[in-house]
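Appendix B, Record 12. Input sequence as logged:
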Amino acid sequence: MDCAKAAISAVCSSSTLTELLIKCVGFTGDTDTVACIACGIASNCQEIENDFSEGLYNGLENGEYGRDYLIEIDRHLKEFQALETT
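Logged structural output:
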């Protein structure tokens, strides 16, 4: 619950994904979980600019739950959102 509260706090006080990630890392404790929750929320928030560099995406590991897995989750989420709006 503390991670979710910290993530929401970071999202509400950020205008870019970079700013958000820096805030999440600045928290003490389980910062990777906070950053994961916050970036997941913010990536679907039109008020938060995606200013991550292409190098950041390309540098992600691509294991079982790596870059391709995240791209697939994103695709499913967008399909689900499209269904909700129709």
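Residues 53-86 form one domain.
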